[in-house]
UniProtKB/TrEMBL annotation:
Organism ancestry: Bacteria, Bacillati, Bacillota, Bacilli, Bacillales
UniProt-listed PROSITE patterns: COF_1 (PS01228)
Protein name as it appears in the record: Cof-like hydrolase
Transmembrane segments: none
Native species: Paenibacillus algicola
GO cellular component term of the entry, any: cytosol
InterPro entries xrefs: Cof (IPR000150), HAD-like_sf (IPR036412), HAD-SF_hydro_IIB (IPR006379), HAD_sf (IPR023214)
């Protein structure tokens, strides 16, 4: 099959555990682009700390950010599609986090907000530095730079397990998913990487069978299931591997390089 669009998750997929894109993987992605394949990064990150990876490779096109909640054109920074959520319903989640001492941030397509930037310290500050994105102080809702597209809770794995279990007992309001071992995301009900990829593919004129997707975590399952060929990294949880059509090497073994070499390069 001649694939025309490749959707790549970023953390745990395109990047190794040191949050670095290796030279081999980068060169292979660039070669796929040179051969006419459109490269789309599909990530839980925002566009500000996703677009630089494409620009580093000299690529344009689109990024699907915030786990599918906002799709952005690289050159113009224009939001071509977004799933805005009802921020009024976030109040009980915010209060619960504050009562339990759980850190959270609120995301618009291009903005990230927390209660007190000046109070960020320890693992929380390190997390933002590692992902190359520092938030701003949360203003009044009407002063945000755009609609809210994602709410993220961050903490130790065991705390996120307990929080996920607790929120699972609440009346469902949002699409709630684990986007990483230390993260829980709340988004609009229809927001997902799979739905965003479907919308972008239709806009770009690609058939489902012309799409290859590679990912490694639960937030990638809808994308892997939608694509004509869904490939899970070897570092994926068992459930994610089960949702994929194929398994490639881990992110520390250039699994993206191996998958593209097998299925896309001529």
């Amino acid at each position: 099959m001649a694939y025309k669009l490749v959707a790549l998750d970023v953390d745990g997929t395109l990047l190794n555990d040191n949050h670095v894109m290796t030279e081999q993987t980068m060169q292979t992605v660039m070669e796929a682009s040179r051969q006419g394949i459109e490269i789309v990064l599909c990530t839980g990150r925002g566009p500000q700390n996703t677009i630089p990876f494409l620009e580093e490779m000299g690529l344009k096109g689109y990024v699907i950010s915030h786990n599918g909640a906002a799709t952005v054109e690289v050159e113009s920074r224009k939001v071509v599609h977004q799933f805005a959520l009802d921020h009024h319903a976030l109040k009980p989640y915010m209060e619960h986090c504050r009562q339990q001492g759980i850190h959270f941030d609120i995301n618009t397509p291009f903005g990230m907000y927390v209660d007190q930037v000046e109070a960020l310290a320890g693992p929380v500050r390190y997390m933002y530095e590692k992902y190359l994105m520092m938030p701003s102080n949360l203003p009044a809702w009407e002063e945000l730079d755009g609609p809210v597209v994602k709410f993220t809770a961050f903490g130790e794995s065991k705390d996120m397990d307990a929080l996920f279990q607790a929120w699972s007992q609440w009346t469902p309001v949002y699409n709630m998913l684990r986007s990483g071992e230390y993260f829980i995301d709340l988004m609009q009900e229809e927001a997902s990487k799979g739905n965003a990829l479907k919308l972008l593919a239709e806009q770009r004129g690609y058939k489902r069978e012309e799409i290859l997707a590679i990912g490694n975590y639960y937030n990638d399952v809808t994308m892997l299931s939608y694509a004509g060929l869904g490939i899970a990294m070897d570092n994926s949880p068992v459930d994610v591997k089960a949702a994929a059509d194929e398994i490639t090497l881990s992110n520390n073994e250039d699994g993206v390089h191996a998958a593209l070499l097998k299925h896309c390069l001529v």
